[in-house]
Design brief:
CATH class of the largest domain: Alpha Beta
Shape: globular
Number of strands: 25
CATH superfamily of the largest domain: Vaccinia Virus protein VP39
Largest sheet: 10 strands, mixed
Helix content: 25-40%
CATH architecture of the largest domain: 3-Layer(aba) Sandwich
Number of helices: 20
Length: 668
């Protein structure tokens, strides 16, 4: 086997390059694209116009730079902050404090194609500052000072006001690279929900169409918020949520959750005994859920008898009031009598109707009588007699539905929810209500430990909604929340309470939500025996990489060059910490942050960590001691595909040769 050097590397479009290489391998030389060869391979599909040719799409000053930002490697890493989380050894939930563009880059290898659902509530472009920047090494004050937004005393000097010619450009340049990176993280049947208001909804949709594809746009939900905004003489009480899927794959798992199973079972039994038609049964089910406080139409077809699994009947009369459709005789399957013909004629031609009704040689091939006395023949429904005109139908299992309404009306107030957790103190302005996010999250079937990502997490409404939902339905949802440590105002209630950043508010909200659920669990006797879910989270911060930053330089002075190479004898920074470097190794090798890490007890002379994850076929065997003893090398047992990682300076050339016979070795 081979020995490799472990170095940070970052290729944002690695999967796309692999696809191109499969299609046109002749266009690659020494791992690089030969553009002339690629042009020849594409042939007539190449646009021959000049670079300034006009094309349909959204363009703004800075778009090219925004594209580059998505592909620029991060110089950071994530480091664990022990004792700041809850149940850190066992939890799968993650909270990350840091600038989200760099965080998204760092998550690319470990979480590509693994996120089921992304919800983000990015800062609305209302004329305030856009503080998101790519330089993770700076504090917020340093960043604002460097960019000329505050003076020496910390007072703001600039704003992104609407009189600025680049007002929209700044916001678009902020959101573009983040959405591009977010798409890579989605599963093939993943979905993203993006909250937005009137200021940028039109531009956001154009950008999302470009990144996700217009064919992957699902809906723009309009939701009725509790507090109206009245700055133009009109009480604005709505905002928007854009919904996109990944590769034109609609999530078939979008269903309702079966809350109140005992009550709904009683209702279904009652409906079946009454032989109630499906349409009326659905109305009763919806009334039940309205009483339960759910503001969406719901069909519990999995719990219904198979004879009720029909998707609402569709009128068969000619749709145009000014013209007439064909008229022909249709016989009832029960009594062979002619059914009532619509006044304006039939919607379909006779041969189309017969094909849908599975009628061959004047006989219905497949007749099914339902509990209420009606009949189904193929895709045509007939009432119990000939006096009602038939209808066309579809079957529920064939219908892709989100079971979400395009207009949502919610009565809860996100601000009040936060105040309840923080003893009545107002620490965060205008957070989204958990009821809104629950409607979105509950629409995803929770058949496994699906990951929900929010990289503009604010006060962490997403985290609380996930925790609460898991407690309600014994779900196994996992969250990853990312928040910039934006400073709270010094005269704010949050700052006075010791919460000096938005990230600190979010972290404390998660802790208080967990505490409240545990109190509820204790009071109700472990929630009536149900699994209350994962009540914990791990806390990470974005920090500079443990690797030294190598920059290209031109130097003719030999002494300076020798000094430079001496500095890089070790690729690691001074005073690096083992736990921090281990986390960086996980991300570099594509292991998630909730991977299992345990110490291999068979090694007495060295500390050897075994890293494993359900999402990785192999393990990492990591020793970061300054010297690896011969005894450890002798006892090292690598399974097939395992990778052993250690410091390059910790082993001799002879030991490297010995290790190479044991499996794949990577040195730092």
């Amino acid at each position: 086997m081979s020995i490799e050097k472990l170095r940070p590397k970052y290729i944002i479009d690695e999967e796309r390059l692999k696809q191109i290489k499969q299609i046109a391998p002749e266009c690659f030389a020494d791992g690089k694209i030969n553009w002339e060869m690629l042009k020849e391979a594409l042939g007539n599909h190449i646009e021959e116009e000049s670079s300034d040719a006009e094309h349909f799409g959204l363009f703004w000053p800075g778009k090219r730079e925004a594209r580059k930002k998505a592909g620029t490697p991060s110089r950071g890493t994530l480091v664990p902050v022990p004792s700041e989380g809850v149940d850190e050894e066992t939890t799968c939930n993650i909270f990350i404090e840091g600038e989200n563009l760099d965080v998204l880059k760092l998550l690319q290898k470990s979480y590509a194609g693994r996120i089921k659902m992304i919800y983000i509530d990015p800062p609305y472009n209302t004329g305030n500052d856009l503080i998101y920047d790519d330089n993770f090494t700076e504090t917020m004050d340093e960043f604002l000072n460097r960019t000329g937004q505050i003076d020496e005393e910390g007072r703001r000097l600039t704003t992104n006001n609407k009189a600025d010619g680049r007002f929209h450009s700044k916001w678009l340049s902020m959101i573009y690279p983040r959405l591009r990176l977010a798409r890579n993280l989605l599963k093939e049947d993943g979905v993203i929900f993006i909250s937005i208001d009137n200021n940028e909804v039109h531009n956001l949709r154009a950008v999302a169409n470009e990144i996700f594809g217009e064919e992957n746009f699902i809906e723009c939900i309009c939701w009725n918020k509790r507090i109206p905004k009245n700055d133009k003489g009109i009480g604005s009480i709505h905002e928007y949520i854009l919904i996109y899927v990944k590769n034109n794959v609609l999530p078939h798992e979008f269903i309702m959750q079966k809350d109140g199973l005992e009550e709904i079972d009683e209702l279904l039994t009652k409906l079946k005994k009454a032989k109630m038609p499906l349409a009326e049964a659905e109305l009763e089910i919806r009334k039940f859920y309205k009483k339960k406080g759910y503001d969406r139409g719901i069909t519990l077809y999995n719990a219904l008898d198979e004879n009720y699994k029909l998707w609402g009947k569709i009128n068969m009369s000619w749709p145009n009031a000014d013209t007439f459709g064909p008229r022909y005789t249709v016989l009832h399957p029960g009594n062979n009598q002619p059914v009532k013909v619509p006044e304006r004629g039939w919607r379909w031609k006779e041969e189309t109707f017969n094909e849908a009704a599975e009628r061959v040689n004047d006989e219905y091939v497949n007749v099914k009588k339902l509990h209420d006395g009606s009949y189904v023949c193929g895709r045509i429904w007939f009432s119990e007699d000939e006096n009602t005109q038939p209808s066309s139908i579809n079957y529920l299992e064939e219908v892709d539905t989100f079971l979400l309404r395009s207009i949502l009306s919610l009565k809860s107030d996100g601000g009040i929810e936060v105040e309840k957790l923080f003893s009545g103190k107002s620490f965060f302005s205008y957070p989204k209500p958990t009821s809104l996010l629950k409607v979105l999250f509950k629409s995803v079937r929770n058949t496994e430990k699906e990951i929900f990502l929010d990289f503009f997490s604010g006060s962490c409404t997403t985290a609380q909604a996930i925790l609460d939902l898991n407690a309600e339905d014994a779900g196994q949802r996992k969250f990853i929340c990312v928040q910039l440590p934006e400073a709270t105002e010094k005269d704010s209630e949050a700052f006075k309470a010791g919460l000096e950043s938005i990230a600190a508010i979010g972290k404390e909200r998660i802790r208080k939500s967990i505490s409240a659920l545990r109190d509820l669990q204790s009071a109700k006797g472990k929630m009536d025996g149900r699994n209350i879910g994962d009540l914990g989270f791990r806390y990470y911060k974005l920090r500079p990489s443990n690797y030294k930053n190598w920059e290209n330089m031109q130097e003719t002075n030999l002494e300076k060059l020798e000094s430079l190479f001496d500095e890089f004898e070790s690729p690691l920074i001074e005073n690096w910490k083992e736990e921090d470097l281990l986390t960086e190794i996980l991300l570099m090798e594509g292991f998630p942050l909730d991977s299992s890490i345990r110490t291999d007890s068979q090694h007495k002379k060295n500390t050897v960590k075994l890293v494993a994850s359900d999402y990785c076929e192999h393990r990492l065997v990591v020793c970061l001691d300054t010297k690896v003893s011969p005894e450890s090398i002798t006892t090292l047992r690598l399974q097939e595909n395992d990778i052993f990682i250690c410091l390059d300076s910790a082993i001799t050339d002879e030991q490297k040769l010995t290790l190479s016979d044991k499996g794949l070795i990577k040195t730092i």
